[in-house]
Amino acid sequence: MSWRLDRRRVRVTLALLLGGLAALSCDTGERSEATQAVAERPGNLLANPGFEAGREGWSYPTHSEFWKDFEIIDSGARTGRRVAYLRLEREGSSPPMRVEVHGVVQELRPEPFPERLGGWYRVQRWEKDSKRTALYLQVVVIVWDDPRIASIVRSERPTGKLRNYQIRYYLAGLEEPPFQLLNARFEFVAKTPPELGVWTHFEVPLRADFERLWGVVPEGYGRLDIFFEARWDHMPEGTGVRADVYYDDLYLDYGAEPG
């Protein structure tokens, strides 16, 4: 009798354990859906932020020989099925190129000016033959045709033809800016090489940074360009670079809905 009772207890306990595992399995699925909802959350000003609709909403500058196309692939995404893939592979050539940029770009005109910008990147390969080569990840935010630009970008040099001002966020790979620009400010998110094989989150207080670095919050502007890039500069002749970079679940928003 005692043995039968113990067996029943064992069966009950086993059932409870299996039920708990099933509940955990369901919870994992719910968390996965919640994670996807974060990527596509209401208030995200970027179109197709998780690249699930392929190239829709994204482009790259075709007028420059230094810009290269991007790919949308169906494997390795952080959430969902698709991810933006930037493949940098350049061996020594003569004459050497000064720069090569791979990235995805959106042009938009949000009002009021957004509060934050962020997303995730993953790097699988990160190689450069020369220490002189600047190989890095960056996000560039460009404000076009702000009517106050003459007073915003003050310089001893004439700025009559200047139409934009910007912030360049260095995500990984640099310890100092590779060059200076009259109409750019520079901000380091990190000063280390990227960690390989993991999704790395980044987020910047965009509105606060423009006010801190430029003294104004952009308003009345013509458009806003957002660049998510992997690039290199100053590669010596006879050397090369090789890198595989992915971006996913990008966002531009107000933190809370503007009141």
Describe it for me?
This protein is of the alpha+beta class and 259 residues long. It has 2 domains: 1-39; 42-253, Jelly Rolls. It is 20% helix and 35% strand. It contains 3 helices and 11 strands, in the order αββββββαβββαββ. It has helices spanning 2-39, 149-152, 206-214; strands at residues 67-68, 71-73, 83-90, 99-108, 116-128, 134-144, 164-172, 184-188, 199-204, 223-233, 241-253. It has a 6-stranded mixed sheet. The protein has a 5-stranded antiparallel sheet with strand order 2-3-11-5-9.
CATH class of the largest domain: Mainly Beta
Question: What structural category characterises the helix and strand content?
Answer: alpha+beta
Strand order of the largest sheet: 1-4-10-6-7-8
Intertermini distance = 70 Å
- Shape call: globular
Summed over residues and divided by their number, the pLDDT gives a mean of 85
How much is the radius of gyration in Å?
24 Å
The helix tally amounts to 3
SSE arrangement, N to C? HEEEEEEHEEEHEE
